[in-house]
Amino acid sequence: MRKPTKLRKSAKGQDCTLNVVHVCNYNSETTVLCHLDGEDKGMALKSPDHFAVYGCSDCHSWLDQHNGAAIDRLFYSLRALGRTHKIMIEDGTLVIA
Description:
By secondary structure, the protein is mainly α. The chain has helices at 6-9, 57-64, 70-90; strands spanning 32-35, 52-55.
């Protein structure tokens, strides 16, 4: 298991940024850092923590189980990445130099 990072810890108590329609449970107590599909993700591998979003338990399951059409997954993932990065930059968790 990977050591918790500052970015992973930042998900605790955050609102879900995925907000998948008819999936999201809007329970910030279940929010975790959800790693998006990318070049580095594969069997037993996760994308880097900076390529991840805040997701409730239900949206996280939806994302990990590859539910929904590819275009929907892309839409929700990119929208959530923008939302998550905005939060992380504003609170100083993610610094872009």
